[in-house]
């Protein structure tokens, strides 16, 4: 039996794909054969061009996922353009840094609403479609959530991010349990320290950057492309018996 990482004929929806990890995942899914809709609040011009360069369909859906107001529209537009959603990647996320004693309610709510609440309700809307459509062999759909090392650890000066990403680990398992009998697999990827906008402040702080690098066994910051292979695996038939898993792609950080 050949193991298949082929995504030909599949429709994928990726949130927050104008930059960073989301862009790398969207392009990798297209390279593996999927048509890809990207949903976000900024213009994803470069991502759309990179997807089109693979000769797959690229769809742009404008949506601010800081609230759950647009989630049903995002699913409806993706379905109208792609005809199907086989793969949802919940990647959009923000981080707010402040000392714990000064941490504001605004920074708490913004991070939890974007990183956790929208992730759950967008997954719910996509899963309803996947379950209703049904019957395409071993899998009716794949949901991939972008978690974090702070799904497992507390971090420093990022309490709302640690809470939200720990929640992402919890809802990944909760969704996996209920959706497994309906042949929808739900997994998460926990990226390590990746060179993107999200970590710009850390990388420009010489001392924190050195402390972080010293702890990464691989000895370098990750690149967005380092996450893409795990996403293709979790989107593909090769992972049909994998569900409820949080896959760390961290250069060995958690092993240390
Ligand atoms: P990034 O380049 O800042 O990407 C974040 C993406 O989320 C951007 O496309 C951003 O769009 C989008 N986004 C943020 N708020 C949104 C909103 N309200 N509505 C729609 N889209 C929104 O950083 P990244 O590192 O690639 O982050 C991607 C994911 O990986 C996040 O969930 C992050 O928490 C996670 N992560 C990153 C690291 C790391 O080391 N970099 C580690 C662990 C986990 P805009 O450009 O409009 O802001």
Topology record:
Layout lengths: L10 E5 L4 H12 L3 E6 L4 H8 L5 E5 L8 H12 L4 E4 L14 H29 L7 E6 L12 H21 L4 E8 L8 H5 L1 H10 L9 H11 L10 E4 L7
Parallel strand pairs: 1-2, 1-4, 2-3, 4-5, 5-6, 6-7
Helix pairs in contact: 1-2, 1-8, 3-4, 4-5
NADP nicotinamide-adenine-dinucleotide phosphate (NAP) binds next to helix 1.
Write up what this structure looks like.
With 256 residues, the chain is of the alpha/beta class. Helix content is 42%, strand content 15%. It has eight helices and seven strands. It has helices at 20-31, 45-52, 71-82, 105-133, 159-179, 200-204, 206-215, 225-235, and strands at residues 11-15, 35-40, 58-62, 87-90, 141-146, 184-191, 246-249. The chain has a seven-stranded parallel sheet with strand order 3-2-1-4-5-6-7, with helices on both faces. Strand 5, helix 5 (159-179) and strand 6 (184-191) form a beta-alpha-beta unit. Helix 1 crosses helix 8, helix 3 packs parallel to helix 4 (105-133) and helix 4 (105-133) runs parallel beside helix 5. The longest helix is centred in the middle third of the chain and has 29 residues, at 105-133. It is globular and about 50 Å long. The model has no long low-confidence stretch (mean pLDDT 97). NADP nicotinamide-adenine-dinucleotide phosphate binds next to helix 1.
């Amino acid at each position: 039996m050949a193991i298949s990482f082929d995504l030909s004929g599949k429709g994928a929806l990726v949130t927050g794909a104008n930059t960073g990890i989301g862009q790398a995942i969207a392009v990798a899914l297209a390279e593996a054969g999927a048509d890809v809709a990207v949903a976000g609040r900024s213009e994803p011009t470069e991502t759309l061009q990179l997807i089109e360069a693979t000769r797959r369909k690229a769809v742009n859906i404008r949506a601010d996922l800081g609230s759950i107001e647009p989630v049903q529209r995002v699913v409806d537009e993706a379905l109208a353009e792609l005809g199907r959603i086989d793969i949802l990647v919940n990647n959009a996320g923000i981080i707010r840094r402040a000392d714990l004693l000064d941490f504001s309610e605004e920074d708490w709510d913004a991070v939890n609403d974007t990183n956790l609440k929208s992730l759950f309700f967008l997954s719910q809307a996509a899963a309803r479609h996947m379950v209703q459509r049904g019957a395409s062999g071993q899998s009716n759909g794949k949901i991939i959530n972008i978690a974090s090392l702070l799904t497992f650890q507390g971090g420093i000066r990022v309490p709302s991010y640690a809470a939200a990403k720990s929640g992402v680990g919890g809802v990944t398992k909760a969704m996996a349990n209920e959706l497994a009998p309906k042949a929808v697999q739900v997994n998460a990827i926990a990226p390590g320290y990746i060179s993107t906008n999200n970590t710009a402040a850390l990388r420009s702080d010489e001392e924190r950057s050195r402390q972080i690098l010293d702890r990464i066994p691989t000895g370098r910051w990750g690149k967005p492309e380092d996450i893409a292979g795990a996403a293709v695996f979790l989107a593909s038939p090769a992972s049909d018996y994998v569900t409820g898993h949080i896959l760390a792609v961290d250069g060995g950080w958690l092993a240390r």
